[in-house]
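Example 3.2
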Amino acid sequence: MKARNLPIHVLLVLGGIAMVLPFYWMLSTSLKTPLEALKFPPTWLPGTPQFQNYAEVFRQIPLWRYLFNTVLVAFLSLTGVLVTGIMAAYAFARFRFPGREVLFMSFLAMMMIPLPVYLVPSYTMLFKLGWIDTYAAMIVPWIVNIFAIFLLRQHIRQLPKDLFDAARIDGCSDFTTLVKIVLPLCKPPLVTIMVFNVIASWNSFFWPLIVTNSDKIRPLQVGLAYFSREQSTNYTLLMAATTLAIIPLIVLFFAAQKQIIQSQARSGLKE
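Structure, written as tokens:
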């Protein structure tokens, strides 16, 4: 390592420590006793790790039900995002039709509209359909993701035109070309979309809070919010529940980080 790069590496290390420190504090607090969690000055290590805090969380709230609801919503919404995103991206990348660029730019412009703007109309529509407090209310509105369409379109446009010409000569239809040629070459953006969509579904709070009323249908974040209100001073149980909610996302990110970096690096390249 060159001496001139030393300050940069020091800053990166300090930044990494600053980002990891809250996660360490959360994990450490989840293993403390209530008295240790309130101790001042605070202790960085629990005296005797209280692993029973995690078991107590499962006794206090229906955490397995929250996890099931979250996984179900994440899986079904991801399936919808992949199906709609792949077909729309392929159409925008390969088909030429009047207004294609205007329509695509309109899609991108819609990404800048914040949720509160369309919250009331969306809720009114779901209420008239009778979908309030159902899985459909948490899944159907999110089966189209404009970012997924953009990312896949950019990747498909980078594929050599010769591949599509060869497929056409071999008599492949557009659907066959999409399934047998395009999808195998779109692994990085597909993995990125899967990770980002799962994280978004896992952390979704505001929308499920509006459209759910009962414990049997609530996802993880909403359930934890109600648990936090009931256990507002029991920091050990709150940190234990938060740790259980975060661990799957950390594992998912580290498992897919290589594909995420590849897709983000290629998405900005020109055709």
